[in-house]
Structure formats: C-alpha cells, structure tokens
C-alpha cells in the first residue's frame, strides 16, 4: 500500500529563487518545511491511505488530531483550526463528467506548506504548477495561504467556465422561439435544471468554506484573499438563480400553451355541440312514433324541416361569430 501511496504523491518545493518537483521512494523522504522561506506543496490522489497519512503526520510533527480527521472519508464542509495549521475539507464538482459527479478534497495548510488530498485523479491546477515552474506572477513570492487562494480560485473558475459553456449549449436547445409543449422539450428543461441545482449546491458548498476561511486568525495566514473568492461565488450563484428563473418561466409557458390548446379544443367542441342541439331537438320531435303528427302528411314537410335546420345552423354560426367566440 505504501508504494501505491508514493506513486500517487508528489511535492513541489518553491521559493522566490528556487523551484523543485519531486516524487518519493519512501515516506521518510516526505519533509514539510516549517519556519523556512521554502514553501512545500504536497499533493496526494486518494483518501484511503490511512496508515501512510499517519506516518507523514508523525514524522513532520503535525497535530495528531489530523489522524482522526483524515480517517473520515465523507466529511461535510469543515474549516478547523489546529496547532498553527488549518484542516479544510469540501466536496468539489467534477465538471469533466456529464453526470457532474463530485469528489472529496482536503487541504492541510500552514504558513509554509500546503498538503492537498484529492479523492480522484485529475484536477484543475496545472496552470498553477506551470506558473510555479516558470516563476510567473507573484505566486513564488507568497506563502502557502496565497497558494490555497489560487487552488480555490481555480475550482471556482472551472465552475464558471463549465457553467457558461453549458449555458450556451442550453440556450441553443432551449431557445424561446423553439418552446414546444412536448415531453422531449420538457425533459430537456428538467435536465438543465438538475445540472444547475448541482452547480448551485457545489458553489454554495465552496462559498461556505470560503466564508469560514475569512474568519480564521492564524499566524502567517492572510484572509484578505478570500473576499475576492466570495464575490466570485456570489456572482456565479446569482447567474445560476437567474437561469433557474428563466427555466421556470419556460415551464410555466409550456403549461400555458398546453392549457390554451386544451381550451381551444374544448371551445370548438362546445360550439359544435350547441349547433347540433336544436337540430337534434327537431329530429327528435319528428322521429316520435305518434300517428297524428300534422306535418308528417304535408307534401313538402321534409324539405321545410331541412330548411329550418339549415337556417338554425346559419343563425347559430352568425351569432357565434358576432360574439367572436371563434
């Protein structure tokens, strides 16, 4: 199991002047700096390496309460202040999957190191690694709190980009001019609503973590970075809420169209029924089997009755048109 852990673990050490990326052949080689200018970013894929986590914690003299925290594989959102470090856990949406699955992500942060633990392989952090390697921007001049800010910002940016990409596709499929009261169109709307609910849930989860980070007081940890992240999450949540309202309006419009069509059908059937009621009445009278019905003996009685029926029909249609009932 230790070899699997080592295969899934790497460390980037950096300062203003230096950069180094390493893998390991033994857990004893994992050293998290404390009190130096060098910042370590340790990254592990997988959350089931409990014994290996314990070794790393003990040999680096980290708070042993981390062992208990890391043993729970399904944390809710938490920001816990320990001895000169933070334990942060949140669930992150995997946007590469069309099903929008999620994964547990854990950050253990002090002033001079950051340990990120991800449930599944793959992340949105390659651009940060490139900036560290190429010494681009100010990241190598900052401490681990700024690295945490960039990691969280990368997650939010990925949410924003994925949301906008899906919003464009959705706008094409669910354009107002293409609204149709069909099961297929309704299914597309409901599918998009479910995607948005997943995005909103993940974004609000991340916002909750950021709000907690804003209230943290720890040496070497600047909380000013996280106000910007909170604004980004608020903007994304506002965009999601706006689109949800639009989709709800489209669903209401579909129901209105269906109701209107049903009313038109019922109106047509009602008008036809009203036209045929007097005709049925006349036919019923002269269809009775009484022997002495005077009109039955009249030579032109049949044609007169047909004429009356035609006149009644014309009069009914004229009256309905005058009332603008059709």
TrEMBL record:
It comes from Polaribacter marinaquae. InterPro entries: CorA_cytoplasmic_dom, CorA_TM1_TM2, MgTranspt_CorA/ZnTranspt_ZntB. This is CorA family divalent cation transporter. It is found in: Cell membrane. Its main location: membrane. Keywords: Cell membrane, Membrane, Transmembrane, Transmembrane helix, Transport. It is a multi-pass membrane protein. Belongs to the CorA metal ion transporter (MIT) (TC 1.A.35) family.
């Amino acid at each position: 199991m230790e070899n699997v852990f080592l295969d899934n673990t790497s460390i980037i050490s950096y300062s203003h002047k230096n950069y180094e990326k390493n893998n390991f052949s033994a857990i004893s080689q994992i050293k998290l700096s404390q009190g130096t200018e060098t910042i370590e970013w340790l990254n592990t894929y997988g959350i089931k390496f409990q014994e290996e986590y314990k070794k790393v914690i003990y040999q680096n003299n980290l708070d042993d309460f981390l062992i208990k925290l890391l043993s729970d594989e399904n944390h809710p959102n938490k920001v816990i202040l320990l001895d000169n470090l933070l334990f942060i856990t949140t669930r992150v949406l995997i946007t590469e999957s069309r099903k929008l699955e999620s994964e547990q992500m854990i950050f253990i942060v002090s002033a001079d190191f950051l340990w990120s633990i991800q449930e599944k392989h793959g992340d949105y952090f390659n651009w940060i690694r490139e900036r560290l390697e190429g010494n681009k921007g100010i990241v190598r001049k900052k401490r681990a709190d700024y690295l945490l800010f960039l990691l969280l910002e990368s997650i939010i940016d990925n949410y924003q980009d994925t949301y906008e990409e899906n919003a464009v596709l959705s706008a094409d499929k669910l354009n107002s001019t293409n609204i149709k009261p069909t099961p297929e169109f309704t299914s597309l709307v409901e599918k998009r609503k479910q995607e948005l609910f997943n995005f909103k849930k993940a974004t609000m989860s991340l916002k909750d973590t950021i709000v907690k980070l804003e209230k943290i007081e720890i040496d070497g940890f600047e909380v000013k970075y996280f106000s910007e992240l909170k604004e980004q999450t608020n903007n994304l949540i506002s965009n999601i809420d706006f689109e949800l309202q639009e989709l709800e309006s489209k669903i209401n419009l579909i129901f209105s169209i269906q109701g209107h069509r049903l009313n038109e059908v019922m109106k047509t059937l009602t008008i036809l029924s009203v036209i045929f009621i007097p005709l049925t009445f006349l036919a019923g009278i002269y269809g009775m089997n009484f022997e002495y019905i005077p009109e039955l003996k009249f030579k032109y009685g049949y044609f007169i009755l047909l004429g009356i029926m035609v006149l009644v029909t014309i009069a009914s249609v004229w009256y309905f048109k005058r009332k603008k009932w059709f």
